[in-house]
């Protein structure tokens, strides 16, 4: 029992040290540039946590030879929260970031992070934001989230369709949503 407690203490100390080292420029060996801002990280930590980073940094890819990695199509806040997970194993971000982080986690094959994001999305899903989350799930090609949100919408169809969020949907998304709902029998008499 003492050995387990000793190992747990060592793990906690290492975890605390990693939390302190996120973004430290003097120890970092990779820099992600997002929206013109730099996020300093450590290849070893990323490689240990993610097979995609392992392939990227240890393979014969241009990324393995470049210190700076340009990140496009994601905001600084989203990518920082994503990388912070590697250091802390915690998900302390707001629900509005969860869908984009879910998409990143999907791309980087981080199934544990995807599950955590999905929990946050499910907890934060409301009648008012369901349509916008559905639309964003389509844009990010996150099928699992899209299906969950669509099921929620079917259960709350009248309220969702009458929400301000639904009224802001693009015409093609709204049309497809309504046609899909009709195929599910929502508009039966």
Walk me through the structure.
- The chain has 189 residues and is mainly alpha-helical.
- The chain has a domain at 1-89: 2-Layer Sandwich (Potassium Channel Kv1.1, Chain A).
- The chain has eleven helices and three strands, in the order αββααβαααααααα.
- The protein has helices at 2-21, 43-49, 51-58, 76-88, 95-107, 111-124, 127-139, 143-155, 157-161, 164-167, 171-183; strands at 30-34, 37-41, 68-71.
- The protein has a three-stranded mixed β-sheet.
- β1 and β2 (37-41) form a beta hairpin.
- α4 (76-88) crosses α5, α5 (95-107) runs antiparallel to α6 (111-124) and α7 packs antiparallel against α8 (143-155).
- The radius of gyration is 20 Å and the shape is elongated.
- It starts with a helix and ends in a 6-residue tail after the last helix.
Short summary:
With 189 residues, the chain is mainly alpha-helical. The longest helix is centred in the first third of the chain and has 20 residues, at 2-21. The protein contains 11 helices and 3 strands.
List the helices and strands and how they pair.
Elements: H1 2-21, E1 30-34, E2 37-41, H2 43-49, H3 51-58, E3 68-71, H4 76-88, H5 95-107, H6 111-124, H7 127-139, H8 143-155, H9 157-161, H10 164-167, H11 171-183
Parallel strand pairs: 1-3
Antiparallel strand pairs: 1-2
Helix pairs in contact: 2-3, 4-5, 5-6, 7-8
């Amino acid at each position: 029992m003492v050995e387990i407690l000793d190992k747990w203490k060592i793990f906690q100390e290492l975890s605390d040290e990693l939390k302190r080292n996120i973004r430290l420029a003097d120890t970092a060996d990779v820099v992600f540039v997002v929206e013109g801002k730099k996020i300093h990280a450590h290849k070893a930590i990323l490689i240990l946590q993610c097979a995609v980073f392992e392939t990227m940094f240890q393979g014969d890819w241009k990324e393995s030879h470049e210190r700076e990695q340009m990140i496009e199509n994601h905001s600084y806040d989203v990518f920082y929260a994503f990388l912070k997970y590697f250091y802390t194993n915690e998900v302390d971000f707001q629900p509005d970031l969860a869908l984009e982080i879910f998409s990143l986690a999907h791309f980087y094959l981080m199934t544990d992070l995807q599950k955590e994001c999905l929990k946050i999305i499910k907890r934060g899903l409301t009648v008012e934001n369901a349509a916008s989350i559905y639309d964003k799930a389509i844009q990010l090609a996150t099928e699992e989230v899209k299906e969950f949100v669509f099921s929620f919408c079917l259960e709350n169809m009248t309220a969702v369709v009458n929400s301000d969020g639904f009224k802001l949907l693009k015409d093609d998304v709204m049309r497809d949503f309504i046609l899909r709902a009709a195929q599910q029998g929502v508009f039966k008499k």
